[in-house]
Amino acid sequence: MTVPGIISDMDCSSSNDGDSDVTSSGCRERKIIVANMLPLQAKRDTETSKWRFSLDEDSILLQLKDGFSPETEVLYVGSLKADIDASEQEEVAQKLLEEFNCVPTFLPHDLQKKFYLGFCKQQLWPLFHYMLPMCPDHGDRRMLGLDYESKRGHIGLDYFGRTVFIKILPVGVHMGRLESVLNLPSTATKIKEIQKQFEGKKLILGVDDMDIFKGISLKLLALEQLLQQHPALQGKIVLVQIVNPARGSGKDVQEAKKETYLTAKKINEVYGSPNYQPVILIDRHVPRYEKSAYYALAECCIVNAVRDGMNLVPYKYLVCRQGTACMDEALGVKSDTPRTSMLVVSEFIGCSPSLSGAIRVNPWDIDAVAEALNTAITMPESEKQLRHEKHYRYVSTHDVAYWAHSFAQDLDRACQDHYSKRCWGIGLGLGFRVVSLSPSFRRLCIDHIVSAYKRTNRRAIFLDYDGTVVPEASIIKKPSPEVISLLKTLCDDPKNTVFIVSGRGRASLSDWLAPCETLGIAAEHGYFIRWSKNSEWETSPVGADLEWKRIVEPVMSLYREATDGSSIETKESALVWHHQDADPDFGSCQAKELLDHLENVLANEPAVVKRGQHIVEVKPQGVSKGLVAEKVLSKLINGGKPPDFVMCVGDDKSDEDMFESILTSVSNPSLPVAPEVFACTVGRKPSKAKYYLDDAADVLKLLHGLATATSSKPRFVPDIQVSFESTA
Question: What domain of life is recorded for the organism (predicted)?
C-alpha cells in the first residue's frame, strides 16, 4: 500500500488564498508515470542500517523525462526492488518523494514475488504470447471487429461511436547514455581484449534473456546448419551469445537453459577444435561496458525471438557500431572510417517494422535463418554501410526522448477537454464499457421538444426504422398499429414533412407503411426514395452499376452455410449478411472475417462494405442516409419553405450520416431563421447527436407526445419531388 497524504504536499508552491492573484494556471505541469518498478536502486547502509537510494540511470522510465519540457514535474509511482519493513515505510516514502519525486507502493515481498515470477511470468506471459485467436490475424481493426481509417500515420479505430487512435511508434534508446558508456576507458580496453581474442574471425552477437520465447536454441541450430552447409566458414565465424539473467523461473526456463547448453556443447564438439569454439555462451552478469564492447565489434547481430515485445538490442547494437569520437581516438581509428552493421531479426519482435534494412526471418525456419546469417556475413561492405547509415539515422532521431515527447503530445490531445466531459457506463458483464461524452449530450426531454414543436410552422422529421420505431429485438418487423396511427397523425399535419429513412427494401417498407399515404420513404439507405404513396420511386444515379453483387453473393453464401443462425437479405441495391440469431462469439468472429474477405474481393468495385449491428452489408458507393436528409432539406429550402423545426431519430451508425448532414444543412447562413434542431440517437452512446433516448419505447412516447400536439387539419401535399441531381 502507499502511505496516504504525501502527494498533497506537492501542490503548487505558491499558496493560493483568497487575496492572492496567483491562479491554478501558474502551477507546474505534472506528468505521473506509473510502472511496476520505480527507477531506483536500493541498498542498506552497513554502518547506519539506513536505506540508501540512487537513481537507476539505465531505467527507461527515468529517460522519458528528456522528452518533456524542462518545466514539467515528473512523478513516479511504483514498487521498490527492496523489501522495506513496515516500521520504515513512512520515513522511506517521505524521503523518496522529497529527493526523487517517487511514490512507492509497498507490496509484501511474497505477494510481489507471486505476482511477477508466478502469475505474470508463468501465466500471463505464456498466454499473451501463445493465445490463438478464433479467427485469422488480419490486423488490429479486423481482430477487434472495428472500422478504421488511416489518419496522419495513425490507425483510427471506430469504437462504440468514438475514434481511438493507435499509433505504431516503438520506444527508442537513450543516445547519450549509450555514448557515455562507449567513451569509458574500460570499454576501449575491453574492445582491445576482444579483438585479440577473436583475431581473424567474424563475430556474430546474440544478447537475450534466458526465456522460452527468445529462441536461443533455434539460433544455435541455425548456426549449426550454417557451418554444415558452408564448411569454408568453419574456424572463421564465432557466435557469442550473452545470456542475461532470467527474469522468470520455473520448469520451462530450466529446460530452455538445459537445451541451450546441450546444443552449444554439441556444436562445439562437432565443428570446434582445441583453439576454436564456434559458440561461446556468456551466462553471467555482463557489465555495460563489456556488453557495449561486444556490440561495437560484432559484424552481425541476430535477434531470433519467437515472440517478443519491444526488443532494444538491435538499436543498442547500431549505436555502438557507429561509435564515438572519443572511442575512435582511444582505439586509433580514423573518424572518417566507414561504419557498417548487419542485423538478422525475427519478424515477431516489436522493432522489426522499424528496421527496413534488416534481414527479417521466421525463427522457426532454421534453413532460412542460416541463409540469412550467411548473407549478412558475406554481404559487400558498401551494402553494409548503406544499411547501417539508414538504420542509424532512424535510431538516432527516434530516441527515447522523441518517443516520450510524441506520446505526451498524443496524450494531451486525447485528454483535451477531458474534464469537461461526463463518463457513462455502457453494457453489462464483459461487454461493459466506460465512455466519455460531451456534457451537452443529454436525454431528450419530451416536454421540451413538444413545446418547440407547437411554436413552429414548417417541420422536417426524419425517422430510422429498425431499432427506432420498431424494437431491434422484435421478431415481427412490421410496425405495430400504434406506430402506424402515430405516423399517420404526424403526416396529416400540413406543417410536417415526415420521412422514414431505412436500410430495408422498398417493397417491405411500402407494404408496411401503406396506410400513411403522405409519408416519405427512403429505402435501402436512400438508393430509392419517394415523397408520398402516390409519387413515383426515384432511383439514385449513384451506384447504378450493381455487377459486384455477383461477386458478393457466393461469398456470403459460404459464410451463411458455415454459420448456423445466419441469413442473407437480398435487396435491389445491396446484400446483407445477418448474424443476430447466430452464436454471439462465433457470429461476431465470422462477421470480422467476412468483412475482411469482402473488402479484398471488392477493392476495385464501386461498392462499400459496412458492418452494423449484427450485420455485414455491401451497398453502392455514394449512397447514404445523410444524402437523403441533405436533398430533402435542400428542396424545402429552395422551394421557399425552409423548416424551422428539424427532428432526426436513429439508432445505427448509418444514422450518424443523417445527424451530420442535418447539422451542416441548417447552418446555412442564407436561412432566414435558424431552425430548432433535435438530433437524437437511440441508446446512450457516443454520437454526433446532441440528445438520446434509451430505446424504441421512448421513441414511441416521443411520437405520441408530438402526435397529441399535432393539428388534425386536412393535409395539403406540396408538389415537391426529391431529385438526386445536384442542387444549386
Answer: Eukaryota
pTM of the model: 0.64
Q: What is the DSSP letter of 572?
A: S
- Exposed e or buried b per residue across 549-576, where buried means at least 16 C-beta atoms within 10 angstroms of its C-beta: beebeebbeebbeebeebeebebebbbb
409: in domain: no
CA atoms within 13 A on the CB side of 209: 15
Q: Which of 40-49, 109-118, 339-348, 409-418 has the lowest mean pLDDT?
A: 409-418
Closest among 33, 112, 21 to 77, alpha carbons compared = 33
Q: Whole domain around residue 577: which residue ranges?
A: 549-620
Helices 288-297 and 185-197, axial angle in degrees (round to 10):
50
Closest CA to 486 of 705, 714, 703: 703
pLDDT tens-digit profile of 316-339?
999 999 999 988 888 888 888 899
CATH code, domain carrying 598: 3.30.70.1020
Written as one string, the DSSP assignment of 206-240 is: EEEES-TTS-HHHHHHHHHHHHHH-GGGTTTEEEE
Q: Average pLDDT over the chain, rounded to whole?
A: 83
Nearest Cα to Cα of residue 64 among 78, 80, 51, 75: 75
Pairing of strands 422-426, 433-437: antiparallel
Residue 127 lies in a domain: no
CA–CA gap between residue 518 and residue 715 (Å, rounded): 9
Alpha helices per DSSP H over 503-624:
506-512, 549-562, 584-601
Euclidean distance between CA atoms 308 and 169, whole angstroms: 16
Domain identity same for 206 and 322: yes
pLDDT of 138 reads 42
pLDDT band at 162 (very low <50, low <70, confident <90, very high): low
Sequence letter at residue 62: L
Q: Are residues 212 and 351 in the same domain?
A: yes
Q: How many CB atoms lie within 10 A of CB 150?
A: 8
Number of domains in the chain: 5
Contact call for residues 29 and 72 (beta carbons, < 8 A) = yes
Q: For residue 340, is pLDDT > 80?
A: yes
CB atoms under 10 Å from CB of 514, counted, come to 11
Q: How far apart are CA 634 and CA 453, in angstroms?
A: 21
Residue length of the chain: 728
